[in-house]
């Protein structure tokens, strides 16, 4: 069976039927390589607003802070004594509120965000 490898060399065994080919194809691997990724639970497109469910909590290995956008997951949402300037793909955000995540602790609250994010580094500190 050929899995997108279209660059057959003269005399190489054909995996489909076990025979050898005396012809050399001119196409390259880059032209014939095909890849598909399917995720059943999440669908994102440029036409939709981010499709991450608001009840999900993402564990992010690149984040340095815990930030939540869903107030239903938090209690005791309040003004923070200091603000947080957050730089992300969407630009810069000034976050001025915090809340309590049951079973975890204090996280930043930013209702305009697109996800609820726990920093892997912060989780490791808590453990």
Structure, described:
A hairpin with a 3-residue loop joins strand 4 and strand 5. Mean pLDDT is 75; it is low at 1-15, 19-30 and 33-37. The protein has 127 residues and is mainly beta. It has a four-stranded mixed beta sheet, with no helix packed on it. It has a two-stranded parallel ribbon with strand order 1-6. It is 9% helix and 31% strand.
Structural class, by secondary structure, is: mainly beta
Strand-residue fraction?
Answer: 25-35%
Question: Could you tell me how far the N terminus lies from the C terminus, measured between alpha carbons in angstroms?
Answer: 48 Å
Oligomeric state of shown chains: single chain
Mean pLDDT: 75
Strand order of the largest sheet: 2-5-4-3
Order of helices and strands: HEEEEEEH
Principal-axes geometry comes out as globular
Taking all Cα atoms into account, the compactness measure Rg is 25 Å
- Determine the number of helices (DSSP H or I, runs of at least 4 residues): 2
Number of strands: 6
Biggest beta-sheet profile: 4 strands, mixed
Report the uncertain regions: 1-15, 19-30, 33-37
Helix content: under 10%
Descriptors:
single chain, 127 residues, mainly beta, 4-stranded mixed β-sheet, two-stranded parallel ribbon
């Amino acid at each position: 069976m050929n899995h997108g490898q279209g660059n057959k060399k003269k005399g190489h065994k054909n995996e489909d039927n076990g025979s050898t080919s005396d012809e050399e194809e001119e196409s390259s691997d880059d032209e014939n390589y095909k890849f598909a990724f399917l995720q059943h639970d999440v669908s994102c497109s440029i036409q939709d607003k981010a499709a991450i469910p608001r009840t999900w909590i993402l564990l992010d290995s690149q984040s340095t802070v815990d930030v939540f956008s869903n107030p239903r997951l938090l209690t005791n949402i309040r003004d923070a004594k200091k603000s947080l300037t957050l730089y992300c793909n969407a630009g810069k955000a000034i976050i001025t509120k915090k809340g309590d995540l049951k079973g975890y602790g204090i996280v930043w609250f930013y209702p305009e965000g697109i996800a609820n994010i726990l920093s892997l580094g912060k989780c490791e500190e808590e453990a």
